[in-house]
């Protein structure tokens, strides 16, 4: 038992250490001079930030005791950001409230899935009960809902922005028409 707990302890410390080394490498290569010297390699090197995010989140999970509410919330927000990145790479318009809303729903479902998987695989807590707790609001609002709210907030902001922009564009159009008349 002691051996197992020591290994688990060292493992999470090692993960934290590797994440820290990664962050130091990114910091050290981000001076103006270093960015210039590295050229296109800077971008390639800085892609390790995704791995660092993953390691840091995992480190957060395994240093927690039975309750992984906070790490689940952080994992959910990380998933939300990664889905936005993926959508951008795939050419989806991130100014679209529909795209942002869909990503919010996907991220929230993935958050509930991560929570379910963690409790099922790493703890003695019945994962089905944790999943069901997502639909009970008297005790706590589960992380998946906060991830959904964050994602939908971004979608609402995009919708408001496009509403504000439309009359402005119309005005500019009318002004241009008057100027040419
Ligand atoms: C040499 C590197 C690292 C070591 C040795 C280390 C060690 C630890 C230890 C011992 C804890 C548990 C503290 C407690 O029980 O209250 C902890 C918690 C934590 N660590 Fe690390 N860590 C390292 C790097 C990192 C990095 C790079 C990140 C994030 C980028 C990180 C994020 C966290 C977070 C979020 C917690 C939970 C804090 C909380 O519960 O309030 N750690 N770490």
> Helicity range of the residues?
over 70%
Radius of gyration using CA atoms only: 22 Å
Unreliable stretches (pLDDT < 50, length at least 5) are none
Please report the distance between the alpha carbons of the first and last residues: 86 Å
How many distinct beta strands?
0
Strand content: under 5%
Number of helices: 8
Secondary structure category: mainly alpha
Mean pLDDT: 91
Give the helices and strands as they follow along the chain: HHHHHHHH
Which descriptor suits the 3D outline?
A: flat
Which ions and ligands are bound to the chains? Answer: protoporphyrin IX containing FE
Oligomer: single chain
How can the largest sheet be summarized?
Answer: none
Structural write-up:
Helices cover 82% and strands 0% of the residues. It is mainly α. It has a domain at 95-181. The chain starts with a helix and ends with a helix. The mean pLDDT is 91.
Brief overview:
This protein is mainly alpha-helical and 181 residues long. It contains eight helices and no strands. Bound molecules: protoporphyrin IX containing FE.
SSE layout:
Layout: H1 2-28, H2 32-38, H3 40-45, H4 48-63, H5 69-89, H6 97-122, H7 127-133, H8 143-180
Helix pairs in contact: 1-4, 4-5, 5-6, 5-8, 6-7, 6-8
